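User: quick one, fold this
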Amino acid sequence: MRLPSRSALSHLSILVLLFGLMSPRLGLSQEQILKSGSGDRALPSPRNEVQLEFRSDPLEVAGTQLIWPTNASRILTSTFGETRAAHLHAGIDIRTWGREGYEVYAMADGDVMRLQTGPKGYGNAVYLRHSDGTISMSAHLNRFEPLLQAYADSIRLASHHASMDLYPLERTFSYKAGDLIGFTGSTGTGPPHLHVELRNEQNQPLNPLLSSLRGDVKDNLAPEFEALAVEHLHPTSYHLQRHQVLVGQEVKVGQEVMNRTDFGTVEVSGPVGISALMHDRANGTKSRYAVYEWMMVVLEDTVFHARADWFPFSMDQKMFLDRSYPILAETGDGFQRFYVVNGNRLPLYQSMKNRGVLHFAPGEYEVRLIAKDIFGNRSESLLTVRAAGEVVHLDEHPKEYLGEHLSEHVDGHLGEHVGEHVGEHLGEHLGEHLSGHQNENPDVYLFKVDSVPAYPLPSVDRVRVDRPFARYPAHKVVEPEALFHQPEKEKILSQGRAFHRIHTRLFLESGWQPLPEDSPVRIRAELSPGHSTMLHTPDQRVQLLIPRNAIYDSLEVVMQVAWQDGLPEITFDPGGLPVFEDLRLRVRLPDSVDADQKVGVFGRHPRSGKLIFLGAQRAGSWVESPMMEIADVVLVQDDEAPVVQVPSLRRNLAGKMVVAVMVRDDESGIDPDESHIFLDGVRGITEFDPDKKELIYVHPSLTPDRSMEVRVEVQDGVGNRSVVRYAGGRW
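Assistant:
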């Protein structure tokens, strides 16, 4: 393949430069460019090794080394910054061998500043504030140490709620380093393990392995690259268009593996972003961890460098932007992006050029990805990118070539005669600009990129939208071309916020006519961050409230609403889009749905298609639900009450007798806040284990036995309720 000369640019690059969307950047010598296209797959020589800055001084908490927080093990199952369902992992997880009840210790002297209990999130968690203001936290506990547990139970019994979030007065509970504070469990999320976090004075999570805890973990194994994804971007707007996944081969010298993976050659015809499925390892475990530090090097030039030291909780949902969320939704794998899209302000990125996007002039380029763990072990992957396109030698006759080339593109829009003169004029000026630019920076391999959209464009044919919320009904009788849209702006209030509502009246050629009821409707919108918006159907029966800070970037989206038996199914193109703040969906139910009939809003799992309950707040004929992403939803009627099984009597890990009741609801799930157990009419603390699907009755001063009557009240997510009594001696 012919390599680019000192002034070689593709046709596309010329046009992009013409309209000011890019400019060349990152100059290299001619020798380096020729070397990049040689096709030589030899390993980089030691003199070309890229040196990563490594933090060698451990983070100190309260000016002292930390105590390892449990006697369960010193083996990690998860590390800081890993991909989670909807956020970045803010700590480390320690193996407890699938069991509960191991001791948990205070890692340094401190006071309890916060206590949490509940069936979700952190489950049972204790927070200690240390003398320097830093915070340590232990979560998913089975229970606290006896004195702290008695305090928590007294609060929960008084409120009759198992969930609490309490901030005790300072110095109410103080512990020394190594003191017992609780026992490992699986509350909040299973399986059993201990979750540990360190936070700074501003309550922002820090990587715990930056502390002396690092010395308790044995790790001399390098990270591994499982796969690479090449994400092809639009040549001018840089919207994501598609991706392709590559599998590499380990590089060996003799029989020795060199911690290098070769992913071969990929051909591209425009800008691309690179993502990697990579993981770290440690001795004595098969667990896979997040990589601590990662970077991308092109021709010995560092294009991207990131490191997971810390992040604020206010940004942990930006995990969807830091990872390739389309691949995450499609496969469940967290491909780490080596480029940054708009809206991603995570403090992980140490340096980058052109936002990490690779937009090459025609030629072949060697791209190296480097992964490093916090112990200094490192590995590399190699990828050759072959950029397609005609090689243009501007140093020969730049003005004449550009004039002729641009005339061809302008003719179709302005006419042959005008196009010829415009092309000559632009060619002359652009040729002078490029000639002058090349004198300053004669060797160019990468073009400047300032903005990478966070969201893709709709897959349907893109229609120009002159107003923010032009709407196109999909009813077969009403063609879009026959409609004139006359939006009227109005301010409404919802939960104390002002939303921008736009009414749309549909004008047909034959005059004003209402859209037939239950007609499918397509709604196209261009949304911008920083603006509260209500996206709705013309008849207002479906309303999607979008808070001002919900979307990460400008978004063009098509919402389609189809009705079946009076209930809508709502789809989005593009779909599966992450948002920073929950949206609010409101649907007005038809008169055919009685007030006592239960209806819920469900999303669909992107891979299995399984329905996932989102919410069902009913107010008259309206049903509302939060939406955690812009994704397809369907309203489903659910009149099935939860199933309640016979109670059982057993001892918990603290040795106390408890009553456990298996409950199940396969549609909208169990609502633990509205589910209770009574023993002989006495209401205690009713805990819920979502993994085992159990309600558990606990009472600090009551010892249950089988002679007592058990009354179980269980409610599901949409409000269906079961009440079952078991007489004494009958269970």
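User: anything notable?
Assistant: The chain has a mean pLDDT of 80.
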